[in-house]
Write a structure and sequence with these properties.
By secondary structure, the protein is mainly beta. It contains 2 helices and 30 strands.
Length: 389
C-alpha cells in the first residue's frame, strides 16, 4: 500500500497523475456542520448531537446530546479542551460547551447575555491553549460581537464587531486567527493577532465570503468566492492577492486547508460541468497553484456563499487525516502520503479508493433535481428565487 501511495504521488508531481491512492471510510452522520481532530478522536457536530469517531479503534461512539443546533467545534492544540458552538439562546443567554478531558465528564457551559439580534454562537477557534475566540449568529442580517474567553479565569471580553456567521481559522502556531465576515458584499477578511488582540492585516475581497484557511504562521490565506478562491500574502498590515484557484461562475473551491508544512493546499471544489480534474477533493502546489492530483472526484455543488455544509474540510494537525462533509455523510480520508507523514503505516480504518465512475448515479440525480427545480444564481453567487437554499 505504501509503495502504491508513493508511486501515485510521484506520478502526480509530474503533472501526469489524475487520482491518487488516498483511502477513506464513511461516517453516516447526516446534516453535519463541523468537525475537529483531537488526538485519536474526531468530533462532528450535527443538529443537537456531538458525534465521536475513534481513529485508533475504527469505532463510532454513541453521540452526545447537547444544546439546540450545534455549529463549530475545535480542539485546543494540547488536546485538553474541546469547544462546541451552539446556535440558540436560552433564557436570554448564548452558550458554548467546553469539555475538559482532565476535569469533570460533563461540559462546562460558557454562558453570556445575547446582544441585540444575536441568536447563538457560530464558530469557535483556539488561540493557543488558553483562550477561545467565539463568533455569533444573528436573527436576520447584522453584526455580532467577536468574543474572547479566557479558560483559566472565565473572563469574557469583546474583541470587535463582526458580521454574523464569521468564519474563524487559527494558524498552526496559534499566534494568529484568520477571519472571514459573511453576508456582506465587500467580503472583508482579517488576520487577528493573539498577543495584542488586534487586527494585524485586512483586505476586502469585494465578493461574498464564507470560508477561510490560514497557513502555519498566518502569513498566507486562501478565501473561496464565486470568482474563485483568492490567495493572499500578508505584507505588514496589508493582505495582497497573489493568485486564484478556479474561475468565475464555473469551478473552484468551496473550502480549503493548508498542509502542515505549507507546501500544498487541499480543496473541496465544485464544477458546474462535471470533470475529474476540477471537482472533488483536489490537491494543489501551494506556491505555483498547479494541480497535483485529485484525491476524490466527489461532485460537490456550489454552496451559494454558505459555510458548514457539503465541502467543509478539516485537516488533522499532523496532516495524516482529512475530514470532509459530503451531502449525506462525513468522509474520513487517510492522507498521510499526500499531506502528512509519508512513512506512517496506513490506517486499518480506511479501505475504499474513490474514482470518477463511482459518482455517475449521484451526478445524474443532481442533474435531475436541478432540471425539476432549477436553482438560479446571481452574479455574486447567491441562490435566488423560490428554490433558493
Amino acid at each position: 500500500m505504501k509503495k502504491l501511495i508513493a508511486l501515485c504521488v510521484a506520478v502526480a508531481a509530474t503533472g501526469i497523475g489524475s487520482v491518487n491512492a488516498a483511502t477513506y471510510v464513511d461516517l453516516f452522520i447526516t446534516n453535519a456542520k463541523d468537525h475537529a481532530f483531537d488526538g485519536n478522536l474526531l468530533y462532528v457536530t450535527s443538529g443537537a448531537q456531538l458525534h465521536r469517531y475513534d481513529l485508533s479503534r475504527c469505532t463510532q461512539y454513541p453521540p452526545l446530546a447537547l444544546g439546540q443546533q450545534l455549529y463549530g467545534v475545535d480542539a485546543s492544540p494540547d488536546g485538553r479542551y474541546v469547544a462546541v458552538a451552539n446556535g440558540g439562546v436560552v433564557n436570554g443567554n448564548v452558550r458554548v460547551f467546553l469539555f475538559d478531558k482532565f476535569g469533570q465528564r460533563a461540559p462546562r457551559i460558557v454562558s453570556y447575555p445575547a446582544e441585540f439580534g444575536e441568536s447563538g454562537s457560530y464558530m469557535v477557534s483556539w488561540e493557543g491553549n488558553s483562550s477561545l475566540l467565539i463568533s455569533g449568529t444573528y436573527g436576520g442580517s447584522g453584526w455580532t460581537p467577536l468574543r474572547r474567553y479566557a479558560v483559566a479565569t472565565g473572563a469574557l471580553t469583546q474583541v470587535r464587531s463582526v458580521r454574523q456567521n464569521t468564519m474563524l481559522a487559527a494558524s498552526a502556531n496559534g499566534q494568529t486567527t484568520a477571519l472571514a465576515e459573511s453576508n456582506i458584499s465587500s467580503g472583508p477578511v482579517h488576520v487577528l493577532e493573539a498577543a495584542s488582540g488586534n487586527v494585524g492585516a485586512s483586505a476586502n475581497t469585494n465578493w461574498f465570503v464564507f470560508e477561510i484557511a490560514a497557513n502555519s504562521d498566518g502569513s498566507r490565506l486562501i478565501v473561496p468566492t464565486y470568482a474563485g478562491a483568492f490567495l493572499y500574502q500578508r505584507q505588514g498590515t496589508n493582505l495582497s492577492q497573489t493568485g486564484t484557484i478556479g474561475a468565475y461562475a464555473n469551478h473552484g473551491p468551496v473550502a480549503a486547508a493548508f498542509a502542515p508544512d505549507d507546501s500544498r493546499i487541499v480543496t473541496a471544489s465544485y464544477a458546474f460541468t462535471a470533470t475529474p480534474t476540477q471537482q472533488g477533493i483536489v490537491l494543489y502546489d501551494a506556491q505555483t497553484l498547479a494541480r497535483i492530483a485529485t484525491i476524490d472526484p466527489y461532485p460537490f455543488g456550489w454552496t451559494g456563499n454558505g459555510a458548514l455544509g457539503a465541502g467543509r474540510l478539516t485537516l488533522s494537525r499532523d496532516g495524516n487525516w482529512l475530514a470532509a462533509t459530503l451531502n449525506d455523510r462525513v468522509r474520513l480520508y487517510d492522507v498521510h502520503g499526500e499531506l502528512g507523514d509519508a512513512d506512517r503505516t496506513p490506517s486499518s480504518c480506511t479501505a475504499a479508493v474513490p474514482t470518477f465512475d463511482d459518482y455517475a448515479d449521484e451526478r445524474a440525480l443532481q442533474q435531475q433535481v436541478d432540471r425539476g427545480a432549477p436553482r438560479t444564481v446571481d452574479s455574486q453567487g447567491r441562490f435566488m428565487g423560490p428554490t433558493a437554499k
